[in-house]
């Protein structure tokens, strides 16, 4: 399903979320309006490494970021593996892969770096590489 967020379209796999599409859209609208900082939707995490990374993403609070290397260290894997799993996240924004950043730059995001930057700015997070 497509969601609209800050003038960008983002594809999410609604089958991984235990909620009606209308409820998903409503929570996205509330997030964009600043009335919601986190989603309270039940997510079905894959039973694999991607699911492990998604669980780690879910623990990063709004306004905070973690680097690919930090998440990799926690999961005893390589940063590139974390980045690849972020790219497979079926529910971006809702499971906040945008909160995982490079050590000194934003790097990669399925919705594009402009949307990743906008999401982090919306949440008040520091942007790596910005002075």
Automatic annotation (TrEMBL):
Q: Name the chain's protein.
A: Methylated-DNA--[protein]-cysteine S-methyltransferase
Upper lineage: Archaea, Methanobacteriati, Methanobacteriota, Stenosarchaea group, Halobacteria
Recorded hits in InterPro entries, A to Z, give: MethylDNA_cys_MeTrfase_AS, MethylDNA_cys_MeTrfase_DNA-bd, MethylDNA_cys_MeTrfase_DNAb, WH-like_DNA-bd_sf
Q: Which GO terms describe its molecular function?
A: methylated-DNA-[protein]-cysteine S-methyltransferase activity
Q: Which domain of life is it from?
A: Archaea
BP GO terms, sorted = DNA repair; methylation
Alphabetical list of PANTHER family matching this protein:
METHYLATED-DNA--PROTEIN-CYSTEINE METHYLTRANSFERASE
* UniProt entry tagged with the keyword Metal-binding: no
A Pfam family assignment: DNA_binding_1
- Residue ranges constituting the Methylated-DNA-[protein]-cysteine S-methyltransferase DNA binding domain according to the UniProt record: 48-125
Report the catalytic activity: a 4-O-methyl-thymidine in DNA + L-cysteinyl-[protein] = a thymidine in DNA + S-methyl-L-cysteinyl-[protein]; a 6-O-methyl-2'-deoxyguanosine in DNA + L-cysteinyl-[protein] = S-methyl-L-cysteinyl-[protein] + a 2'-deoxyguanosine in DNA
Organism of origin is: Natrinema versiforme
- Keywords in alphabetical order: DNA damage, DNA repair, Methyltransferase, Transferase
